[in-house]
Amino acid sequence: MSDACCGDAPARAEVGAQEEVEQPWWRDRAVVLPILSGVFLAAGLLVEWLAGTPAARIVALVLFWLGLLAGASTFVPGALRNLVRKRKLGIGLLMTISAVGAVILGYVEEAAALAFLYSLAEMLEDKAMDRARSGLRALLKLVPETATVARGGRTVTIPARELTIGQLMLVRPGERVATDGVVRSGRSSLDTSAITGESIPVEVEAGDPVSAGSINTSGVLEVEATAAGTDNSLTTIVELVEQAQAEKGDRARLADRIARPLVPGVLVLALLVAVVGSLFGDPELWITRALVVLVAASPCALAISVPVTVVSAIGAASKFGVIIKSGAAFERLGSIRHAAMDKTGTLTPNQPVVTAVVTTEGWSESDVLSHAAALERQSTHPLALAIVAAASDAPASVHVEETAGHGVLGTVEGRRVTVGSPRWIDAGQLADRVEQLEGEGRTCVLVTVDGETVGVIGVRDELRPEVPEVVATLADQGVGVSMLTGDNARTAAALGRDAGIADVRAELRPEDKAGIVAELDERVPTAMIGDGINDAPALAGATVGIAMGATGSDAAIESADVAFTGHDLRLIPQALAHARRGGRIINQNIVLSLAIIIVLLPLAITGVLGLAAVVLVHEVAEVVVIANGLRAAQTKRTELTPIGPGGSARAADDLAVATA
Q: Do 508 and 445 have their domain in common?
């Protein structure tokens, strides 16, 4: 059935940068032909039942033939092409042989039923795949068709796909951002819920990055494009999902391995039934049973069961911000029992903030911060940016000089001020507090005024607010956690204690991280979660590599198997639970599919079930397998409470969480 099952259907058009054109069902050949086949079959049965005259039987026979031809046209051409061009014995060939044999034996009605049910199951499987891909098509609709750009002192409207890097876009309230960019002027709030799932609008101003598909909720923004209209963060996400549709997981390959010898095996078995049976009984009877065997042993349900489940589950995951690049990655994700997490940019937002200010007598925290910010506002160092952000007001400074690796000095309100490292400035009476702050993983900056040490500022890249909750949830799921970082051991240990992570590995190079992940992976299936170029080797070597933010480091995304569209770490336990549930459905479908073959074969050989009955049972069972696989697309809306300043918050209606 279709590509996943038999390899007989034509290749489907890719879902990607070029959106699929929706068409009404009555113009869709894959839908109309099975419907016509069923209508003709039902009409033939009705005529045959209501009227017993020879003329009525001729009319019924014509209707059966029409039903047979309509249904068979959906799979016979592909089966014959595969046989001639690729020497491939597909399941469609089994059904073709069965239908031809039934006609030769005079069972046109049964052949029509076989063709109808087979084409119907194929159509249902195709629509199941389309349903699973609907989330991807919805992503493409987030990009507006047009964009307003500044050109030659005036604004013009152009197709969004024609946007190029460097063009200045004008984004008015209520409009979507057409491609990734940086705000050059204006201030507003952006609704990014459709992209990241974060329900709280993000405040942006000059210098802030914005993502394609975000909705401008208030002021007018001028945004400089940093990506082309056809190559931005949304198209990156689409490409990742396309890869998921092109690959199958390990169990899918197992299903293929089972089906591959089964097809010729069934042909041999049917031949034996026909030959041996004919030697000891009625040839017509045993040839008929041989044809029934061909249909009964058709492994189409087995081949359908895994792809439908995987594609459905991957589509559902994309709805709550988890982009899974392949079916194999999805199946491996469900086996994870250990998570190795990078610190900077993953456990922390990579945005140092002032977390402590200690002063000497006669100086307030605000005074110390303002004097330090007066000098630091001319620096782009991350620590300087943190101090400037923490100061409510900073006076003017003159004669500012910077000493690389140590700090800065200058004149503020007529007084000589120095801001720098404890390795450069004597902490004096604050030495004990400096030691304490550094023991807690903070980087200390001392401030002196006219040669007197007046305060120490503690700066640290704090944990994301949700980290302790995530670590505890993973522990409840039986998943261990390690922290891997290139940062110093003291800072890593302090953050590890706050996070509840016992296994902390610090001062690591990229190759060290890869080695540790390989070591962990030998013991238990391990996921590596990271966001930077230095995480790429570890991401590639893990059982599953997870990149934080699908718009982050290209190297990380390319190396990873899974990417999050946002940065809320609570997606990790949710994604694992979703993958485990999908794995259980896959196992159910494999067992059910094999049971169909095991049960139907002896019934077909012994003649308990005839051709029409076997066709009916077999195809109904396939529909059941498809329906079970579609359960992987079902999710439960679960409310995640806000996680405080600096963290993301998700409302119940904005996040779909898979449940067991």
A: no
